[in-house]
């Protein structure tokens, strides 16, 4: 049977509100059972739109993370509303997991997720092998246990399809019978609890709708005890102040609303009040160290407000205030191409144009919405997002945009990316992050999270400490921005990076300084887009360009306090031993991409790098000299002249 879902979105000042799903049933396909007609078919259930869940995988095998709240809770939302004690809980949907799992597959016990081939997980009668994991992928396994793949069956059941209703109920009951409480022995079942809880709530609603009933018939009386069992688990296990904990609290609130348990709703609201102020800080930053998860949390906390209002909760004002700050954060984190800088466990995604927010302006490339209030955002949580402008004096896509990471040690969805730079200019990506390799514990994920997958100064022979990084100073000028950072990335190793971004001509200058107690190799990494080919011209210079493109990138290093050794410039692409030169635009897509390395060896290193995007026919010329204690580089970039100074204290300054 085919099922067409039509979703109507209602925008409420950037908050995605309810979506009503109406389903049209067509003639069954060959081999599919025809649905049994309901005696009193319902009109279907309301289903909320899918949230932008990053990478459709939020699971790291072997552990369940708990993120303790570190900020004071939101005092304006700790108690339930006294004005409305009851209400309704709308089915929150199935997070796109149901999309590739039509009714035909449900009737054959076939489960599909991601890029993996469909797999028959049962005997064709709803008896499922819940230990199946044919692809040895933790996310595939967790989504099997989420039961979200039953979504199309749930919707059909809500319209009176008795065959779908029976099959969905059979599979859920089979899960309950084969997975006795409390699921501690199975991390996949454990992690999927918040999703599974909602699917069971949706199924309960679908049965009432499909049968035209106001209470569960005795045949389905087992559902409410199962919901209370799931609520018991959620009461005893809270993942804290991040998206897992937020979703757990929403599911617990949903059970409370469904089975009329005020204690469940009260505890859920207290946890949400404790989580919001850590999940989104006073500057609007996410605590998850990922741009994609920031956008997800923006949507998720909007849903929290709606859910609380529907069933006697009290969202207060803190959620709206923090989301407004995050909307500015996300707009500032948007590149000139309308995408979020790819940071942490983030796929390459577009910024969502939430109406009436600065995100609308950024996502629509300045065509609509309020312009963000700042050109550069410097955030204490460890993010810097900047640009040459917002498209006021040149086309939006013609602006240059950049990101830098620093701040607290790696956590949650973060990578070892401190001091790393991403950059767009001339309407294209110039410097990229290597992306998000997924959650399986293998060499690819380890590399993608390591310093070697990011545009920073690395030490290949040292063990990464994932340490905190200080921002020592920064200076913002109309035509240039300067930042300096320092940290201790490995035992006995110290590094400092100064970064100077220029406008007219648009380019980047970095000064990397490393020191260690014993001789090491130091590598400044520049990761380039996969469509480009990088060619070494000398030990100082590499040129990268995509076939037929109007832009090339010239990367070069100038001797500063050290001569350039043989092999000072290297290019790696598609290398597997060791892994280097790749990009993950999605967790299912890995592309070979050039990585430029500027290399030194010894107990200290000084690497002065220039990254210059320029028209294909353009060239870069420079001369060097000294002005007192300042090292001066005079540049001619395609006919535009400028002068850069490196002061005795290591500052990078634009002189002209």
UniProtKB/TrEMBL annotation:
Alphabetical list of InterPro entries matching this protein: Chondroitin_lyas, Hepar_II_III_C
Main location: periplasm
A matching Pfam family: Hepar_II_III_C
GO cellular component: a single term: periplasmic space
Keywords on record: Lyase, Periplasm, Signal
Location relative to the cell: Periplasm
Signal peptide: 1-29
Gene Ontology molecular function terms on file: lyase activity
Domain Heparinase II/III-like C-terminal as annotated: residue spans: 398-557
Protein name (Swiss-Prot/TrEMBL): Heparinase II/III-like C-terminal domain-containing protein
Source organism of this protein record: Jiangella rhizosphaerae
Upper lineage: Bacteria, Bacillati, Actinomycetota, Actinomycetes, Jiangellales
């Amino acid at each position: 049977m085919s099922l067409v879902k039509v979703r109507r979105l209602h925008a409420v000042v950037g908050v995605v509100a309810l979506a009503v799903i109406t389903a049209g049933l067509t003639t069954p396909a060959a081999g599919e059972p025809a649905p049994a007609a309901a005696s009193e078919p319902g009109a279907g259930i309301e289903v909320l739109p899918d949230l932008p869940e990053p990478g459709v995988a939020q699971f790291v095998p072997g552990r369940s993370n708990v993120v303790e709240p570190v900020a004071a809770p939101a005092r304006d939302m700790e108690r339930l509303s006294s004005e409305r004690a009851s209400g309704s809980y709308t089915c929150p949907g199935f997070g796109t997991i149901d999309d590739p799992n039509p009714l035909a597959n449900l009737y054959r016990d076939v489960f599909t997720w991601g890029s993996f081939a469909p797999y028959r997980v049962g005997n064709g009668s709803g008896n499922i092998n819940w230990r199946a994991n044919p692809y040895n992928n933790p996310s595939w396994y967790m989504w099997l246990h989420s039961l979200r793949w039953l979504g199309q069956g749930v919707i059909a059941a809500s319209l009176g399809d008795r065959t779908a209703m029976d099959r969905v109920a059979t599979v859920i009951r089979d899960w309950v019978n084969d997975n006795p409480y409390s699921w501690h022995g199975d991390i996949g079942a454990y992690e999927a609890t918040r999703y599974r809880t909602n699917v069971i709530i949706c199924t309960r609603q679908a049965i009432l709708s499909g049968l035209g009933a106001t209470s569960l018939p005795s045949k389905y009386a087992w559902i409410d005890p199962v919901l209370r069992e799931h609520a018991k688990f959620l009461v005893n296990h809270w993942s804290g102040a991040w998206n897992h904990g937020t979703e757990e609290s929403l599911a617990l609130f949903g059970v409370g609303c469904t089975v009329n348990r005020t204690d469940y709703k009260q505890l859920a609201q207290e946890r949400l009040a404790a989580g919001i102020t850590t999940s989104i800080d006073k500057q609007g930053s996410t605590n998850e160290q990922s741009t994609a998860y920031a956008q997800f949390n923006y949507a998720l906390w909007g849903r929290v407000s709606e859910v609380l209002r529907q069933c006697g909760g009290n969202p207060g004002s803190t959620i709206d205030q923090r989301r407004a700050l995050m909307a500015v954060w996300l707009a500032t984190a948007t590149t000139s191409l309308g995408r979020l800088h790819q940071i942490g466990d983030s796929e390459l995604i577009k910024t969502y144009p939430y109406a009436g927010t600065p995100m609308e302006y950024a996502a629509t490339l300045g065509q609509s919405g309020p312009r963000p209030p700042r050109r550069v955002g410097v955030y204490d949580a460890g993010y810097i997002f900047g640009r040459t402008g917002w498209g006021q004096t040149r086309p939006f896509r013609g602006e240059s945009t950049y990101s830098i990471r620093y701040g607290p040690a790696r956590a949650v969805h973060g990578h070892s990316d401190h001091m790393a730079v991403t950059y767009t200019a001339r309407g294209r990506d110039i410097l990229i992050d290597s992306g998000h390799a997924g959650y399986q514990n293998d060499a690819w994920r380890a590399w993608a999270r390591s310093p070697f997958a990011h545009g920073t100064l690395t030490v290949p022979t040292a063990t990464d400490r994932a340490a905190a990084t200080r921002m020592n100073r920064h200076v913002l000028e109309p035509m240039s921005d300067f930042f300096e950072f320092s940290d201790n990335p490995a035992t006995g190793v110290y590094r400092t990076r100064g970064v100077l971004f220029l406008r007219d001509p648009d380019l980047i200058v970095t000064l990397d300084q490393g020191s260690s107690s014993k001789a090491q190799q130091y590598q400044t990494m520049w990761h380039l887009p996969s469509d480009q080919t990088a060619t070494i011209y000398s030990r100082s210079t590499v040129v990268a360009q995509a076939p037929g493109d109007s832009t090339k990138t010239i990367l070069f290093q100038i001797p500063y306090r050290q001569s350039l050794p043989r092999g000072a410039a290297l290019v790696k692409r598609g290398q597997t031993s060791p892994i280097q030169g790749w990009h993950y635009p999605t967790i299912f897509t890995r592309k070979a991409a050039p990585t430029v390395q500027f290399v030194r060896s010894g107990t200290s290193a000084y690497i002065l790098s220039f990254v210059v995007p320029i028209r294909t026919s353009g060239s870069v010329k420079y001369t060097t000299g000294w002005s007192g204690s300042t090292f001066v580089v005079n540049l001619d970039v395609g006919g535009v002249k400028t002068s850069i100074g490196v002061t005795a204290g290591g500052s990078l300054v634009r002189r002209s």
